[in-house]
From TrEMBL:
It is found in: Nucleus. One of its GO terms (cellular component) is nucleus. PROSITE patterns: K_BOX, MADS_BOX_2. Residues 59-145 form the K-box domain. The lineage of its organism: Eukaryota, Viridiplantae, Streptophyta, Embryophyta, Tracheophyta. The gene is GLO2. GO terms for molecular function: DNA binding; DNA-binding transcription factor activity; protein dimerization activity. Residues 1-36 form the MADS-box domain. Pfam families: K-box (PF01486), SRF-TF (PF00319). Residues 52-86 form a coiled coil. Keywords: Coiled coil, DNA-binding, Nucleus, Transcription, Transcription regulation. This is MADS box transcription factor.
């Protein structure tokens, strides 16, 4: 704590950039860095002033990998602009042929995918149409069963005329069926 206090005093009295890192015998780390700087700035300044390299080969390899990825990214950005049809005047004939082939391959893949999706949509439409027909048939069967039950009630006297002034009305459950065209003529 005394050393950290002295580092703070040096920072204030001398207007110096101070950084202090202490590892105790227990492995605990204590650090201090002047408010106007960072530890990285201090280490970079030390490296420049002393001429010693603080970063090992591992860090150098990482830096090289980052540079390589940046260059690859830039190259891909240029290719993307070319594929969009922009700035193609700078390309030679061979590069244009390669790009044309890539575009044709992409177009054929897109066409194949569209055809596959269209087939799936048609198949789903057929399935839905079959289900619709089945549901219509089931509904028709239920209506016929209900109509049969209503006819029995009519014969049993469940439906009455409320007043004699009105003509006999057919229950709403009965309706003209398209199978019997002669009924259309009567109505």
């Amino acid at each position: 704590n005394g050393i950290i206090k002295k580092a703070k005093e040096i920072t204030a009295l001398c207007d110096a950039k101070v950084s202090l890192i202490i590892f105790g015998t227990s492995g605990k780390m204590h650090e201090y860095c002047s408010p106007s700087t960072t530890i990285s700035d201090i280490l970079d300044g030390y490296q420049k002033a002393s001429g010693r390299r603080l970063w090992d080969a591992k860090h150098e390899n990482l830096s090289n990998e980052i540079d390589r990825i940046k260059k690859e990214n830039d190259s891909m950005q240029v290719k993307l602009t070319h594929l969009k049809g922009e700035d193609i005047n700078s390309l030679n004939h061979k590069e244009l042929m390669v790009m044309e082939e890539a575009l044709q391959n992409g177009l054929s893949s897109i066409s194949a995918k569209q055809s596959e999706i269209l087939r799936m949509v048609r198949k789903n439409d057929q399935i839905l149409e079959e289900e619709h027909k089945q549901l219509q048939y089931t509904l028709h069967q239920k209506e016929m069963a209900a109509m049969g039950g209503n006819m029995r009630r009519i014969h049993e006297g469940v439906y009455h005329q409320r007043e004699r002034d009105y003509e006999y009305q057919m229950p709403f459950a009965l309706r003209v069926q398209p199978m019997q065209p002669n009924l259309h003529e009567r109505m």
